[in-house]
Amino acid sequence: MTTRRERIRAKIMARVRIDENTGCWLWTGPTSGTEGRGAGYPRMSLDGQTVAVHIAMWTNEHGYIPGKKELDHVCRNRLCVRYDPDHLELVTRKRNALRREEAKRLRCVEVV
Ligand SMILES: [Zn+2]
């Protein structure tokens, strides 16, 4: 007998490619598109609803996300759905925004 939790995990993992260099679990299914700030996140249909896969995966393993918190991709890979703290971490909205700015600055430095 499989539980709902196992079913969701299996459904997600069936469309994941594991990146051996970073350890990321990269979603190979549909995404939220290529335009705008919310673009490039993994999407899937679950029980008739469209959900963000990394959020579905995380809550499936750890439980619901409180209203003031959101998931941050520590690995900076939007398609990653790995629910370990090295990849997805629950942070406050404010901290997430700060990290985003920091990552942007670091990318600029790399280019120079
Ligand atoms: Zn990752």
Task: Give short descriptive properties of this protein.
single chain, alpha+beta, two-stranded antiparallel ribbon, binds zinc ion
Task: Give an overview in words.
The protein has one domain. The protein is built from three helices and six strands. Strand 3 and strand 4 form a beta hairpin. It is globular and about 50 Å long. The N and C termini lie far apart (55 Å). It binds zinc ion. Zinc ion binds next to loops.
Termini separation comes to 55 Å
Bound molecules: zinc ion
- Rg, alpha carbons: 15 Å
- How many DSSP E strands? 6
Q: Indicate the proportion of strand residues.
A: 15-25%
| Count, helices | 3
> How would you write the strand order of the largest sheet?
1-2
Q: If you average the pLDDT, what whole number results?
A: 92
Q: What is the H/E order?
A: HEEEEHEEH
Q: In which range does the helix fraction lie?
A: 25-40%
The biggest beta sheet is recorded as: 2 strands, antiparallel
| Unreliable stretches covering 5 or more consecutive residues | none
Question: How many domain modules?
Answer: 1
Global shape: globular
Structural class: alpha+beta
